[in-house]
Amino acid sequence: xxxxxxxxxxxxxxxxxxxxxxxxLLVGKQFGMxxxxxxxxxxxxxxxxxxxxxxxWKTERWNLMVVxxxxxxxxxxxxxxxxxxxxxxxxxAQQLSDDYNIIxxxxxxxxxxxxxxxxLNDPFTIAILLIGGLLVGxxxxxxxxxxxxxxxxxxxxxxxxxxxxxxxxxxxxxVMVHLIYPLIF
Amino acid sequence: xRYITYLAIGVLFGIIMFKSEAASWFRIYEMFQFGSFHMYGxxxxxxxxxxxxxxxxxxxxxxxxxxxxxxxxxxxxxIARYLIGGIIFGLxxxxxxxxxxxxxxxxxxxxxxxxxxxxxxxxxxxxxxxxRKYLPx
Lengths: 185, 137
Hints:
The complex is a heterodimer.
Chain A: H1 2-5, H2 10-26, H3 35-43, H4 61-80, H5 90-100, H6 112-115, H7 123-143, H8 147-156, H9 160-184
Chain B: H1 2-19, H2 25-32, H3 38-60, H4 80-96, H5 100-108, H6 114-131
């Protein structure tokens, strides 16, 4: 039963993600994990503030169910199917420790330096997480989709707009990690 | 009944994201450092199968379970919104180390700090809704 606790290699995970996309297509929906944020805004009354949220969010309730499932899946996987470590490239772990004092590379799933609940005592950490989230939420809606909607769904359907968006994702990610990280951490 | 299906799809997705380590901050950082093939392999293999499957659906005109058309509408043409929106998303993806799917998975895994990221993402979505008419699309 090793496969339960061992991390799943890319050639297992990738095809399974494609499977999730096809199941959603079969039940008449589209794979995308960020439109639920719009649904959630609409559900709490954001339609009063902006036209963008004036739609019958109840027809989009299904994506809130997928979100609930994802939360449950994360709970099951981390508690019963994982030792919660990630073996990253040792060179990357070393670089994180040398440059940013993040010494948990290879030993944890998320760096406790940023994601331990205690780390929230530091306003800087809160700012990083909040701004990161803001950019993700704003950018995903502006671009009309996120990693799942564009990089998986859209590219599978050979959509040029999705290719442009994915190139944008990587420009943003590379700029953040290579140019902005050294300035802020 | 329908809702149980969506819940089950979410559970499957959550387990895949966590077990493949695509939800790990380290894997995202490593990806942007080109330190491993792992994330590229996940996206690439999903994509190869995705392209083949979508082509099959179109050629064989496969319908959804209840017989309607599949949601494979072409996306609106534009460069500005995809490029600018994409770059903003990418900056956040690398800063928070999580994209929308994994955020929820990590919340379930018990990383409470991710709730700050989710809160930010909701605010960002709301902000987009407010500013939408002033932005180039």
